[in-house]
Amino acid sequence: MAVGMSSPSATVPGAVRTSFALYMTAAAVSAANAAALVHFHLAPGLVLVNPVVELVLYLGIGLPMRSGKLWARIGMFSVALLFILLNLLYTHGLTSAFGSAPTYQVVLLLVLVSGKVALLGAATWMMYRPQNQVYFG
Q: Between vectors from CA 88 to CA 83 and to CA 89, what angle results, nearest 5°?
């Protein structure tokens, strides 16, 4: 029997699998954003550490979440909320870059950040759907 599952026939609900996939996609978008920042010379190469930290957090908490651990579900919500808030602050900072960087670069970065915020919101919503209550209970 898998850890966190109530019976051998229990499987991971589709919404939980989708949530995990959305978190992994958000980590990939974060990597693309960091690469764009470095490529456009808007941030030092050290910014490439951010997506690695995100991926480690998403995997470290997300895998137990997929196994039905309630603490991991709450942890993923907390991490997602933190990254959403940080990305909203980052978006506010990007709007001041319109004068100093080419418009297409800033717009691309805004699209990436907006997509990441949407992915994190959707992943969290999928994880907290009512039919998943039994799985995490």
A: 100
**Which residue in this structure is represented by tokens 């991490």?**
79
Give tens-digit pLDDT for 55-88.
Answer: 999 999 999 999 999 999 999 999 999 999 988 8
**Residue 122 near residue 29, CB atoms below 8 Å:** no
Instruction: For residue 65, give the amino acid letter.
Output: M
Q: How far apart are CA 25 and CA 19, in angstroms?
A: 10
Mean pLDDT of 115-128: 94
Q: What percentage of the chain exceeds 90 in pLDDT?
A: 61
Residue 1, token pair as written in the block:
């029997």
